[in-house]
Amino acid sequence: MNRFFEFFERDWFDPLIEVGSSYAAQIDGLILTVLIIVGIWFLAAEYIFLHFILKFRAKPGRRGEYIDGKNKRHKRWITIPHLCVLAFDVLIIVVSFRVWYNIKMDLPEDPDAVIRVVGQQWAWTFQHPGADGELDTPDDIFTVDELHVENEKTYHFELQATDVLHSFSVPVWRIKQDAIPGRTITGWFQPTRTGTYDVQCAEICGFGHGVMAAHVMVEDAETHAAWVAANTPAAQ
Ligand SMILES: [Cu+2]
Predict the structure, then answer these.
(1) How many whole angstroms from 160 Cα to the centroid of ligand 1?
(2) Is 197 in contact with 172 (CB distance < 8 Å)?
(3) 202 C-alpha vs ligand 1 centroid, how far in Å?
(4) Is domain 113-231 given the CATH code 2.60.40.420 in the classification?
(5) Alpha carbon of 61 to ligand 1 centroid (Å)
(6) For residue 19, how far is its CA from the centre of ligand 1 (angstroms)?
(7) Pairing state of beta strands 155-161 and 113-120?
(8) Which of 19, 49, 111, 213 has the greatest CB tally within 10 Å of its CB?
(9) Could you tell me where in the chain the CATH 2.60.40.420 domains are found?
């Protein structure tokens, strides 16, 4: 069974959108699984549909027949696909639960750092822990629309919103998490590829929603340490 899951958890979508976090391939695998299952059913249904349209098309001398679906032979056209759909539903639930558990329910212990992400109309504020690795200390680094993280490190994030609903979305990491005023939502990620990537708001949050874009810079250890050193606020 594990080999089955591994097949779907490869970087299949990488040519379309980079796979930039430890769990991005799992999300892609889930999408691919659903796509294949639904795709096969779609093609089968269309094939049968078109086949019957041609087979039973009007012909001179043949009268139309009224089918009420009470006949056992006719009923099978409903019950057999219905049972198959239920079986595939169970498969999708099993596959998605694994992914859901790993990403949303199981928070890795002892993260390398915790960052705070605050959405407001219409910008993202990021609070980085600074050199001491602790949030809410004087050396915290605040940035607007620019998140800096170190590659291959495990992060927890505390997501907040100050005004209305926003949604913290980082496509290359396959993160999309709603931010809700009055609540702190904790999640995690582990970047696996350096570079500059898009952060967007994925929840219509007002007039400026479309321009609520930010960037995440995933840096190697050296570059990140240099950034932290250069941006640490002067001691008071
Ligand atoms: Cu927003």
Answers:
(1) 11
(2) yes
(3) 7
(4) yes
(5) 65
(6) 24
(7) parallel
(8) 19
(9) 113-231
Identity (one letter) of the amino acid at 222?
Answer: E
Cα–Cα separations (whole angstroms), residue 86 to 1, 49, 91, 200? 19, 21, 9, 36
CA of 81 to the centre of ligand 1 (A): 42
pLDDT score of 48 more than 80: yes
Distance linking the first and last C-alpha atoms of the chain? 58
Give me ligand 1 centre to Cα 203, in Å. 6
pLDDT band per the 50, 70, 90 thresholds, residue 9: confident
- Compute the C-alpha angle 5/193/118, nearest 5°: 95
* Residue 236 pLDDT exceeds 60: no
> How far does the centroid of ligand 1 lie from the alpha carbon of residue 204, in Å?
6
d(CA 115, CA 127): 6
Q: Are 209 and 167 in contact (CB under 8 A)?
A: no
